[in-house]
Write a structure and sequence with these properties.
The protein is mainly beta and 129 residues long. Helix content is 11%, strand content 37%. It is built from two helices and seven strands; from the N terminus they run E-E-H-E-E-E-E-E-H. It has helices spanning 23-26, 119-128; strands at residues 3-9, 15-21, 36-38, 48-56, 71-76, 91-96, 104-113.
Length: 129
């Protein structure tokens, strides 16, 4: 059974971390970077969140240009998984595909559409239960 840590970023720079498992985690399986998921999966009722990236259990980043969920060695000039130190530097790095799978451990997301209730109010209501 899959379990993820979902990190959701807000427009004001705030981030919220959620542990997701079971049926809620299954809502993410098979989705790719750029797709939206119902915010109910992380406890944000009325919200939609957009997957922006993530990493697998070994720390390999998800890469939007690699289809599927397999790992692949790509020659990178910078961006996800590699930051060059000199102009023209390239490096072969191993990345995971853009699709969320059982191997994914962390999913990065942002709020795509807002609900009527603020995120803080939803989180406070969840803590009271």
């Amino acid at each position: 059974m899959a379990d993820f840590q979902v990190i959701v970023g807000d427009d004001d720079g705030a981030t919220y971390s959620f542990e997701v498992d079971g049926q809620d985690a299954n809502r993410f399986i098979g989705r790719s970077i750029g797709e939206t998921v119902d915010g109910e999966a992380v406890g944000l009722s009325g919200y939609e969140i957009e997957i922006t990236g993530g990493s697998d259990r070994a720390g390999r980043p998800m890469h939007a240009e690699v289809s599927g969920s397999q790992t692949k060695a790509v020659l990178s000039t910078g961006g996800v998984g590699f930051e060059p130190t000199v102009d023209g530097e390239r490096k072969r790095i191993t990345v995971r595909g853009a699709e969320v799978s059982e191997e994914t451990r962390q999913i990065n997301a942002k709020i795509a559409s807002r609900g009527e209730t603020s995120v803080e109010d939803l989180l406070d209501a969840g803590d009271e239960e």
